[in-house]
Design a protein that fits this description.
The chain is an alpha+beta fold. It has 33 helices and 51 strands. It is an enzyme of class 2 (transferase).
Length: about 1200
């Protein structure tokens, strides 16, 4: 193993002040003295600002000096030196990219770039009625979020939208030119709709604000942003995983004996899929718009490659094996009687599906024209055809054919669909731009038809102004966005896109669950199929996707999470790249034949999947291209790599690739040196400066495969090209909370990733101002004694979810088997594990269309003037007072609704309001345990309905059956609560808070938990926080040394005295602090029993479920057990008497059911007998009778 990093160990002792200081210092290197709290020091501040500015200038000069190529940076004494603290690049990276920034970047790209592009593509509206009329969009602009009412100050904060159940949205305005009569009218800033704004994007009011400014807006500075607020709920557009577009993917189907190369083409106009496949030793071109598979030679001939020799060269090259396997295709072509391009076009044209919209005007087009159009625009739509020059497309099809031939001879050349380099991630920006494109086209169609309607009318009093029609339509765009985001259904007919579940409600159980949701990736596989391929952990996921964070169960491996230092790219224009490629000496491919293309030293250059040219010196070309990228001449997110199997050079600039930064290594030395890091520490340079100077670059998965990356500096070899910034960044934000994860069995880390999202802790700094549906808060959260670097980077130490419990690992009382925990009663009294549960209950005070409205009333009085017990806490305004205790069944909002709310008779005139009678529709408290009214909010929504929200609070202390978990997937329920005097104690008289059974360790192999206890104990004694970062952290030897220095056993074991007998225990006990999380699963929310209660109307059986006070089902398997024991009376009682026994009258003669001792079929009451059967059976008989199936009951005397 390579030696562990030095900086990891030094991180804590370097803090000379409080333990908390180290975190603030590492997380925010730029703590320049700009934010002075008091205004009286204004003059000083200016002076200090000046000095800070000069210091920064000097530092920048130093930085420039350092980046000179001839600078050696070596002293006299140090031949080779490690880069100290290179992990500081990580907080610098997280400032500019990472975690949630990809959502925000993608949304910003959509607002700034995509909106304008979509507008440009659909910028004209013409009229069929009046040819002189036109309307043209010249610009589009998105404002800042605003209220949708006529208030004086329209600016709005996200928190107000959460509280008032409104949408956090901004107005989209366009600039238009249109004709009115004979005049051209220009209007600027015409509103066409409202776009929901992503929090923390550049259109959001929170962007770039200081902590103080955020506090004034009651917004948490640690809140990640990246979500939308729609109708008061926080919605996240999850990252979607797709196969990459415009790339050739070769697959085999051994069952059908098919080898196929497929391409999904995607342009702004259309998306389609094209296949080149081999079946029965013949190669065909397949596409949905062509009725049958076209032999490949005919397809190539139709594209202007007539000579058979040329076709053979283009597809098979000079390889003999490929030539012989391709030859039969040429014979097929001749057999079909196709020799020229014209014949080939006619052959294809007769097989093209013709789709004509509207009425057929003019003569029918000849078939070869149909074929030309299909080949030019539909087949392989992303390869452009200029005029009638099909050469590019022909070469592309030939390349696909060549890939199929290569895969036939060599199995290894089949592509892997699950390889991360073949995937693209779709972010909020791309999904929203598709949605906007669809809505905007509909908007323009509606606008056109409404304009046509007006222009059709011959006589008008005034000249027609299109401005009014524009304003009428604006609701379409607003409601389109709101509906899509709030339901999560992206159904766009234009792009054949039907997707459900794109958005989810942001989970606010804990700070970590919200953060984990922002980095989640969902793939489009069905969860039901048991496919192992997509679920497996791919080697290519290293550093890009977190190795531990995936759910257990059916979605395992399909739902993934991003690692810590990843960024998802946005689109970069490809025209300039093509120019650069030609400048770097790439020849145009259209001038060469197959012999040159497939000669052994030639490499084909691809840009975003379309073939551009040839190069004979791939290594030199790639090196030059990388030089350009490192010097900042082209975007840093463009990747270039050589594929030696296919003899190609790939350049990718499309959006949705995952990439991560690496330190560049040259001549076995990393380019980043300690001096650079020192400047970063002083806050003089930022992460972007490292990029600009070419010290660091972004690699995506494909280029990573083409590099040689060292994990540690000590392992750099002569061929090394890059150095990892930090190895622990292969884990994501949620798995980064686990201390010493590299000492645990892998599934345990996965379990902790699931449970860390359910722990109760602090949610945000504004948690007490929020009114959420359900809010769990810990009363005394603590930061962990054993931290990791990730914890400091994401701010978990400032919003923690758990407490440091003193744990004794021993068995006690027998109530601790199967992972149950023993808790100390005195610890619970002191607030260990105590939490608060807040529930929101809201109601609308509605105004109805017929003029009536709901009202709040004071408590109704009895005849003698007293108030019923359940109305005790209602005040004169009909709402309970804040701070009142609410018992089960109490009313806390006494609302009354009019009886005739829904009839449309509008009653005006005198005494109308007096004549309306009201009925009580109160809100009453349902929970079994008493609560308190925490706060009441009165406001009005967008459409002037009054909204009343009541927040109810319960404080809960841990009880038997509550679930706890450490950070190592070791979950357990509380099995017994023991008085402090009965707990064991050590020499100092310390009692454990928790006793854990030692049998939880051997089979689970969570050694990390044992080391955490050791490090935590050492930290408590030395008064410092220890680190348990993955692949590093505080060493066990050092921890043991600290324990010995303070007079403890090096192994972390203590001698305990039994609290029951008072004798010393006969073995040493492993004893120290472990960070425990209380999970949201509490017994009080789960416990359920019932004697008699509600029944379902149809079957008269007890209802189902705890919420409906349902019965406990004796199911099929339980029934089988009772049958096995022969307990017939018990069966009868459970399945009929206690459930739905029903007495019927049955006739012995005809076997049908009667009533009241009368058989209507026999018209007599002689042979009618009473018997008891389940009501469900009676129902079944009646339903069968209704279906013309007649069941007869055959009765015997018992």
């Amino acid at each position: 193993m390579p030696p562990r990093k030095v900086p990891v160990r030094k991180a804590v002792p370097s803090a000379t002040t409080t333990p908390g200081a180290s975190s603030s210092r590492t997380a925010a290197p730029s703590s320049l003295p700009q934010s002075k709290p008091t205004p009286t020091l204004a003059k000083h501040v200016v002076a200090e600002d000046d000095s800070a500015e000069t210091a920064r200038q000097e530092g920048l000069a130093e930085w420039e000096e350092m980046c000179r190529p001839n600078w050696k940076g070596l002293g006299l004494m140090d031949p080779i030196k490690n880069v100290e603290d290179k992990w500081l690049l990580l907080p610098a990276f997280l400032k500019v990219k990472g975690l949630v920034k990809q959502h925000i970047d993608s949304f910003n790209y959509f607002v700034d770039v995509d909106l304008a592009n979509i507008l440009k593509a659909n910028n004209k509206v013409l009229s069929d009625v009046d040819p002189k009329f036109w309307l043209k969009y010249t610009g589009i602009h998105v404002g800042m979020p605003s209220r949708n009412d006529d208030s004086f100050d329209k600016s709005v904060t996200p928190h107000e939208c959460r509280l008032r159940d409104t949408t956090y949205a901004a107005t989209i305005t366009v600039d238009v030119q249109y004709t009115r009569g004979n005049v051209i009218v220009r209007r600027k800033g015409v509103p066409i709709g409202r776009l929901p704004i992503m929090l923390r994007s550049n259109k959001c009011v929170l962007a770039g604000q200081s902590e103080a400014a955020l506090a004034r807006m009651t917004e948490c500075p640690l809140d990640p942003g990246g979500y939308f607020i729609v109708k008061g709920t926080e919605k996240v557009i999850l990252v979607q995983e797709q196969l990459s577009k415009n790339r050739i993917i070769v697959e085999t189907d051994p069952v059908k004996g098919i080898v196929q190369a497929s391409v999904t083409s995607s342009t702004h106009e259309r998306k389609s899929k094209t296949y080149v496949l081999m079946k029965k030793n013949r190669i065909y071109l397949r596409h949905n718009s062509i009725n049958e598979d076209i032999p490949i030679c005919i397809a190539l001939k139709s594209m202007g490659i007539q000579a058979d020799k040329e076709i053979l060269l283009l597809c098979a090259g000079t390889t003999e094996a490929h030539k012989s396997s391709f030859a039969p295709n040429l014979e097929d072509c001749a057999l079909a009687g196709v020799f020229t391009t014209q014949q080939a076009l006619e052959y294809i044209g007769s097989r093209v599906k013709v789709t004509r919209r509207g009425f057929q005007t003019g003569p029918k087009r000849p078939v070869w024209e149909e074929a030309m159009e299909a080949l030019a625009t539909i087949v392989l739509a992303h390869v452009e055809v200029k005029g009638t020059d099909f050469k590019h497309k022909a070469i592309y099809i030939a390349t696909m054919t060549r890939r199929v031939l290569m895969a036939m001879t060599d199995e290894k050349l089949v592509d892997d669909r699950d390889y991360v380099g073949n995937k693209r991630l779709e972010l909020a920006g791309q999904l929203l731009s598709l949605l906007f494109e669809d809505i905007f086209k509909t908007f323009n169609q509606n606008l056109k038809s409404s304009i046509d309607k007006v222009l059709k009318k011959p006589s008008r009093t005034s000249e027609f102004d299109a401005y009014q029609s524009l304003l009428y339509q604006s609701d379409l765009i607003t409601s389109g966005f709101v509906r899509a985001i709030s339901t999560g259904n992206w159904s766009l007919k234009r792009f054949k896109m039907e997707r459900a579940g794109v958005t989810h409600v942001l989970s606010r159980l804990s700070f970590i669950s919200a953060l984990g949701m922002m980095t989640r990736i969902s793939s489009q596989f069905e969860k039901t199929r048991k496919v192992s391929g997509p679920r497996a952990l791919q080697p290519s996921q290293w550093g890009m996707l977190c190795t531990s964070d995936t759910p257990e169960g059916e979605a395992c491996g399909l739902v993934k999470n991003l690692a810590l230092m990843t960024h998802i790219t946005t689109d970069v224009e490809e025209e300039p790249i093509k120019k650069i490629v030609y400048m770097l000496g790439v020849e145009d491919i259209t001038f060469s034949t197959g012999a040159e293309i497939y000669s052994p030293h030639t490499f084909v250059v691809n840009v975003n999947g379309s073939i551009v040219g040839l190069t004979r010196f791939p290594a030199r070309f790639v090196a030059n291209f990388r030089k350009l990228r490192r010097s900042g001449r082209i975007s840093e997110f463009i990747s270039v790599y050589i594929n030696h199997h296919h003899h190609t050079v790939h350049i990718a600039s499309d959006g949705g690739r995952i990439c991560r930064p690496m330190i560049i290594v040259e001549n076995q030395k990393p380019r980043v040196r300690t001096e650079h890091i020192n400047l970063l520490k002083r806050g003089i340079v930022t992460f972007d400066d490292f990029l600009k100077k070419g010290l660091i670059e972004y690699l995506d998965v494909n280029e990573e495969n083409d590099s040689h990356i060292a994990l540690y500096e000590s392992s750099i070899e002569p061929s090394t090209t890059h150095l990892e910034i930090e190895p622990f960044t292969i884990l994501g934000a949620v798995a980064g909370l686990i201390p010493y994860p590299h000492h645990n069995q892998s599934p345990r880390n996965t379990y902790q990733c699931a449970m860390g999202k359910q722990s109760i802790g602090a949610i945000a700094y504004n948690q007490l101002n929020r009114i959420d549906t359900l809010l769990y808060l810990s009363v005394y959260p603590q930061q962990p004694m054993v931290k990791t670097k990730t914890i400091e980077l994401i701010g978990y130490d400032r919003l923690p979810a758990g407490q440091n419990a003193t744990v004794a690992v021993m068995s006690y009382s027998g109530y601790d088997i199967e992972d149950a925990l023993i808790l100390n009663k005195a610890s619970l009294d002191r607030g260990y594990g105590r939490c608060q549960v807040f529930r929101k209950n809201a109601t609308l005070i509605r105004k109805y269309p017929n003029g009536t409205f709901d009202r709040l009333a004071d408590a109704p009085r009895e005849a003698d003037g007293t108030v019923q017990k359940r109305y005790d806490i209602i005040q004169a305004d009909g709402i309970a007072g804040v701070g009142e205790r609410v018992d089960p069944g109490d009313v806390y909002v006494n609302k009354q609704s009019p009886i005739n709310a829904n009839d449309n008779t509008f009653n005006t005139g005198q005494g109308a309001s007096a004549s309306i009678s009201y009925r009580n529709t109160p809100m009453s408290y349902k929970s079994p345990m008493a609560g308190y009214i925490d706060r009441v909010m009165l406001t009005d929504t967008d459409n002037d309905q009054t909204l009343v929200k009541v927040l109810l609070r319960q404080t809960r202390r841990p009880e038997l059956g509550d679930k706890f978990s450490s950070r190592h997937g070791q979950k357990g329920v509380c099995g017994l609560i023991v008085n402090q005097e009965d707990m064991p104690f050590n020499d100092q008289g310390i009692n454990p808070d928790t006793i854990m059974n030692p049998h939880g360790f051997p089979s689970r192999m969570t050694v990390g938990k044992m080391i955490e206890l050791l490090a935590g104990k050492a930290g408590v004694l030395s008064g410092s926080l220890q680190y348990g970062t993955a692949f590093g952290g505080s060493k066990v030897e050092d921890m043991s040394k600290i324990l010995i220095d303070y007079g403890f056993s090096y192994a972390g074991k203590d001698m305990l005295t039994s609290g029951i007998t008072g004798e010393p225990m006969e073995c040493y006990v492993y004893f120290g602090p472990i960070y425990y999380q209380k999970l949201k699963h509490m017994v009080m929310d789960k416990m359920h029993a019932r004697a008699k209660g509600p029944r379902a109307v149809l079957t008269r059986q007890p209802t189902e479920g705890r919420s409906r006070d349902g019965g406990l089902r004796l199911g099929e398997m339980e029934r089988d057990c009772l049958i096995g024991y022969g307990a017939t009376q018990l069966l009868l009682e459970r399945l009929m008497i206690s459930s739905d026994a029903f007495e019927i009258n049955a006739c012995e003669a005809c076997g049908l059911m009667g009533y009241n001792g009368w058989c209507p079929y026999c018209k007599s009451s002689k042979k009618v007998a009473k018997l008891t059967i389940p009501y469900a059976a009676k129902l079944l008989f009646q339903e069968l009778t209704a279906m013309n199936v007649l069941p007869r009951l055959v009765l015997e005397d018992a």
